[in-house]
Amino acid sequence: MMVHWWKPLALSAIRGVCYGTVIFTVMDSVGGLLYFIGPSMEPTVHENEIGLCEKVTSYQNFQRGDIVIALQPDEPTTQICKRIMGLEGEQINNSKNPINNTSGGKYFGGIVPRGHVWLEGDNKSSSRDSRHFGPVPLALVHGRVFAKIYPFPEMTWFRRSPKPTT
Amino acid sequence: MVIWKQIVLLYKRTVNFGARNIRKLSIDTTAKHSAGKWSSNILPILTGACILVYVDKYYISLTLVTGSSMQPTINPDSTSQRDIVMLDRTPITTRDYSQIQRGNIITFRSPRNPNDINIKRVIGLEGDTVRTLGYKNKLVLVPPGHCWVEGDNNRSSDDSNKFGPISLGLVIGLATRIVFPLGRWQKLERKFPHSRVKTSTYCDMEQLRHLPPVLFSEVKSDSHD
Q1: Which of A90, B42, B136, B178 is most deeply packed, by most CB within 10 A?
Q2: CA A9 → CA A4, A16, A45, A156, distances in Å?
Q3: Where does the record place the Peptidase S26 domain (chain B) (predicted)?
Q4: A137 to chain B: which residues are within 8 Å by CB?
Q5: What is the reported pTM?
Q6: Quick check: is A82 catalytic?
Q7: Which of B47, B99, B116, B118 to mutate to test the interface with A (most CBs of A within 10 A)?
Q8: Using 50, 70 and 90 to split pLDDT, how confident is the model at B133?
Q9: ipTM value of the model?
Q10: How far is A155 from chain B, CA to nearest CA, in Å?
Q11: Of B46, B113, B169, which is closest to A22 when you measure between CB atoms?
């Protein structure tokens, strides 16, 4: 029987834990796996699908059309997934016509204040978004959804349109 | 005869040269081996750094406070050393926002600019009615999921009196202590402006009665709602 047969195992285990710590810290600040619930982003994303988000984008690099995950302003323990429909300073034009605003929100638009964004779900009739709780402070936005990976036949990248040069 | 000698000499030299090279190679490999050992010493350092990053992000963080909006509690003297404050991140990482109580000092990302981090005191929570100082409305009912924050120094404070109630999701830390300069090591106590806040019906006003008032911030008024 070898003397100290457990030493290589112990050393490998410690090395494995160290690698795990480093990888975890990097992945934790870079992105994450998402599990979608609710119908508010249909048909882009359905319920019980899995996507990937990245947390690398800095606040000034978010664009209109990005699908983002954010904390719900009136319920900070809930994460919501919506699309950015307006950045600060932009005019949101939502008609006061109830047909267009079928979910019954009381915010109809206007100019998005400084440091805020206007979020809306793709499924306009059943999405609780900025039309209900108003413009969202950009600091509540935590990441951008850049791909959907499950179900496999519907794997897509969510591409960004080229940044408009204004 | 001389040529033979020279050939033999040349042969000996080549062999020695080759031998020296082989020795050099073996020295190189041993040097590389110990260099490999050095590069594997990077891993503990990297792991230590990652653990510090994790603790800072999820448990406890230290932050330098600039500005005078929390005088005299923090940075009482604008000209001298600025305070370093210890933040508790567990209310945010455990999503237990009930730990953020009226009178606590919190750090949050400004609703006006997500790159700015401010430090203020929580005056009101959701459902409270706050009598404001300089806001567009004299009385504000704090909406669900939001809080009303104010700096202790009302003269120079960019707080809810300017940008209204803020969402609790913006909060990134709860300030518990001043840790530097060492002479100012102290626990940051809860303070509450009793005369300006009417709490929601779910909170017992009696629980807040023991809290000391916030200086300069109470309202001397005869009429109370």
Answers
A1: B178
A2: 10, 10, 45, 42
A3: 43-132, 140-178
A4: 109, 111, 114, 166-167, 170
A5: 0.81
A6: yes
A7: B47
A8: confident
A9: 0.85
A10: 31
A11: B46
